Every structure is written in structure tokens, then in C-alpha cells.
Amino acid sequence: MHFIEEVVVDEFLPTFRSMLAEELRERSLTQSEVADLLGISQSAVSKYVHGDVERNQRLLEDKPLQDLVERLAEGLASGDVTPVQALVETEVFVRELEHGGLLAQLHEEAVPELADYEGEFAVHDADSRMRQAERTLSDVRQGLRVVENTSGFTGLIPAVGSNLVQALPDADGVDDVAGVPGRIVDVKGRATIPAEPEFGVSAHVASVLLAARAAGNDALATVNVHYDEELVEDLESTGHTAVEFDGETTDLQTAVGDALADDPDADVLYQTGGFGVEPIVYVLGADARAVAETVRDLV
């Protein structure tokens, strides 16, 4: 028997660690510093950097893996990403490769008999709900890192706080939307995220996203910021489509649905407030990182 975990150990780990070690060394980190970050010995780092380990060429050429390694190396070298955060993100990536990705392909090639089970159950289910949930949480974490590292983001946080949320592709309620428990708040001029993202922790912002999706919008993520007429104009000037909805009504789905009736693909929703209602802008997008980057470009 040849398990997919063996593919991870024998093929992925040597390739991944060597790629990451090379990237970190290119950023002027010493072998000792690289060893500390990766939790391995200096001699192992030396072997990785000097090509004394066997690497899988298909993994080396995998663009998503290349992007992950570059992103983690940049974050680890600058201190913006901790080793634990890098581990979590890599774990999520490995799960994705195991479920319908390159690792699944390598496993199926090593064990061709798996094809005999096709149609009975999916050993490497690319669309499993667990995989979707892991990917969604990873996207939110990436978006939150953008928010944390955006100088001036606190100037966009409304009095009620901001939240960055992303829904599962088949979401039908707030429990299927991941966000920040307690919301993103301004603490001494810094955007502060009180806890790791979870599902079901955002009621209002998640409801706006779900209402937009119910109206035919394909967005999976949104972030809320304070309303400002110039802010909306800036978004429109950079190619975004903004529509206004009634923020005072208790029937949010109807209000958002009416606003999107003529253009369900609009990617900016806003309401100008009212008695006891703070004016807010919601930026919609394909994932949490994308909407965070849209807001970053406004600062």
C-alpha cells in the first residue's frame, strides 16, 4: 500500500523545503536563521541550498507552489509572517494538492489501481466541503495580512468596526461565511484583528454578502469601510461599479436585491446612513485577498 502521505513526505517536503530555503537565502538570511525559521538543522539547510536532495521536477514547476514559496519567504524574511502562520498556510496548500491537485495526481500515478474505484467514491475529491472551508479560511487570513500591513487602513474603519468575510461557494447562511470574531478595530492607529477567522462570526457583513449573492452577484467576499462620497468616486474612477441601497430597512435582502436589480455584477454597495445607522461602503470581490487589495489601493 502506498499512501498519499508518503508522497507528501518523499516528494513534497524535500522539494518545498529546498525551494523555501533557497528563497530565504536569496533574501540574505544566514543558514542559521533559515534553520531556525524552518525548524531544521543548518546541515539540512546546506543540503537544500546546494541541491544535495532529490526534488520533484513537476512540483518545482508548479506555479501555485512557486507563488506560495515566494509569498512565505517574503513574509518570513520581513517578519510579517510567523513560522506558525507559514505552517498553517502550507498545511492548507498541501490539503488542496492532496484533494484533486498535483499530489493527488502523483498518488494516482503511483497507485494506478485507485482508478478502479472511480465512480464509487472520490479518493481525491477536489470539491470536498472540508477543502473549500480550508481554502476559504486561508483566503481570509491572506486578506487580513494585507489589511494589517496597509498603512492608513484605520482611517477607513467605521465606528462599528470593519470585517473581512468570505463565503463558501454554496453558502446559504451566515454559518457558511468566514470572518473575524469581534471585527477589525483601530487600536492606537493600528488595524487590530482580535482573533483568527472563523465561520459564523459575522452577522451583518456576512448578510450583506449573502444578499448580494442571492441577487445574482458572483462575489464570494466583501469588506466594509466607512462611507465617503469621494471614496465611492475613487472606486468608480478605477473601474468599479457602485450602487446605493437603503440602509435603514430591516429587510436587507430586499434592499440589496433592489439595488442590484439593474446591475447584479456591481462590486461596490453603499448606504448613506440614517437615524441610528452609520453610512457604510461594502467592497465585493472574488476572494478576501482581492477585496483587501482593492481597499489598500484607496489609501
UniProtKB/TrEMBL annotation:
Residues 20-51 form the HTH cro/C1-type domain. Gene3D superfamilies: Class II aldolase/adducin N-terminal domain, lambda repressor-like DNA-binding domains. It comes from the Archaea. It holds the Pfam family ThiN. CDD domains: HTH_XRE. InterPro entries: Aldolase_II/adducin_N_sf, Cro/C1-type_HTH, Lambda_DNA-bd_dom_sf, ThiN. One of its GO terms (molecular function) is DNA binding. This is HTH cro/C1-type domain-containing protein. It comes from Halomicrobium zhouii. The lineage of its organism: Archaea, Methanobacteriati, Methanobacteriota, Stenosarchaea group, Halobacteria.
